[in-house]
Recover the amino acids of this structure.
């Protein structure tokens, strides 16, 4: 069997210098190989050290959501992304002028707006407060969600909440099934064949001592003070973030006087999410696509990234986990309220609902992520957020 001709480009440093003896020798062999074989094997040891990181990066690239890869486009034929929806057998991605960093990063890297709620001078009436009010409104109008930096969530409170979540999901299924409620979505959800990896439990009014105590006794009849304290402390801090966002939003539209009504008529729900690692014969599907029926939903991830957000131009954004970052999402109730010709809570009987979502996925591998997907429908202003699994 004929072998492809090999040409060594790595022998000597002066090879790269036009006019050298080695250069002239190789220069003759290249056209001969192309004329006879149409190709040749180039030996070039300078790329050996880059081979592993390049292939590893390629795996990460093709693991990106299909909808995001589709946005790598080019006016030139056979450039950009080429492939079919999963489980397609072939995909390719090419970028014009790949030596330019911006050309590599821009097509596939989209980030949520980030708003810092940790600034010491972020006080009502200050210039920093007014600026943040505008940022909140724009982020919700343009993306339907944003990343909130909130350093008041101290590490020990966060760690205690996630340790409590692991304890909770470690309970026998028959115990978790005690989490019942007549209200849709306010109860235990799990053990479904079409979604075997997902479980959730819900605590209504989690800032209340009585509510968290009742839930704790339901799960641990002998008591578990550590869990109860962590759930309530965690919820109090996230509720503070929720109310700050709501107040800023109302003030940005010139209706700050409605904030008191909102704060007095909001029910909070602490929902614990968990995904387990799929077995060989299991699907890795997460939550089915849906919109949250809330005013706000605030998600806090564990140490493994499992959150994706779909923004207006149909791009999918990976949201990395952070100990002090939350994703604040506009729910259906916010979209409806904003769509009313002259919204006034005194004209209607409004009961607001905000969800505090703690996402625990301790055993998921990088290739089996159960992604939360927040999707924005086409709405010129606020939009409901769709959550699904991938």
């Amino acid at each position: 069997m004929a072998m492809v001709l090999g040409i060594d480009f790595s022998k000597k440093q002066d090879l790269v210098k036009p006019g050298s003896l080695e250069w002239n020798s190789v220069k003759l062999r290249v056209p001969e190989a192309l004329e006879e074989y149409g190709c040749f094997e180039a030996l070039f040891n300078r790329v050996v050290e880059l081979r592993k990181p390049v292939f590893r990066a390629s795996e990460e690239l093709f693991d990106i959501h299909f909808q995001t890869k589709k946005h790598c486009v080019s006016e030139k034929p056979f450039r950009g992304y080429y492939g079919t929806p999963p489980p397609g057998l072939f995909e390719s991605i090419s970028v014009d002028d790949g030596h330019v960093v911006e050309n590599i990063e821009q097509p596939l890297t989209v980030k949520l707006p980030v708003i810092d709620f940790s600034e010491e001078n972020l006080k009502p009436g200050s210039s920093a407060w007014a600026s943040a009010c505008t940022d909140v409104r724009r982020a919700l109008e343009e993306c339907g969600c944003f990343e909130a930096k909130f350093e008041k969530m101290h590490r020990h409170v966060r760690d205690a909440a996630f340790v409590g979540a692991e304890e909770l999901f470690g309970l026998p299924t028959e115990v978790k099934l005690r989490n019942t409620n007549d209200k849709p979505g306010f109860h235990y959800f799990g053990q479904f064949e079409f979604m075997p990896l997902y479980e959730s439990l819900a605590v209504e009014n989690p800032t209340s001592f009585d509510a968290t105590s009742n839930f704790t006794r339901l799960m641990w009849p002998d008591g578990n003070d550590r869990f109860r304290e962590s759930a309530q402390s965690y919820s109090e801090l996230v509720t503070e973030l929720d109310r700050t966002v709501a107040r800023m939003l109302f003030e940005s539209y010139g209706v700050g006087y409605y904030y008191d009504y909102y704060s007095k008529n909001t029910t909070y729900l602490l929902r614990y999410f968990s995904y387990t690692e799929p077995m060989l014969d299991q699907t890795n599907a997460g939550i089915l696509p849906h919109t949250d029926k809330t005013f706000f939903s605030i998600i806090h991830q564990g140490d493994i990234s499992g959150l994706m957000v779909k923004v207006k131009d149909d791009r999918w954004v990976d949201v990395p986990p952070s100990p002090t970052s939350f994703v604040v999402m506009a729910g259906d109730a916010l979209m409806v309220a904003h769509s009313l010709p002259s919204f006034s809570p005194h004209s209607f009987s409004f009961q607001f609902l905000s969800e505090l979502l703690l996402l625990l996925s301790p055993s998921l591998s990088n290739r089996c992520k159960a992604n939360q997907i927040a999707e924005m429908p086409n709405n010129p202003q606020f939009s409901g957020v769709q959550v699904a699994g991938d």
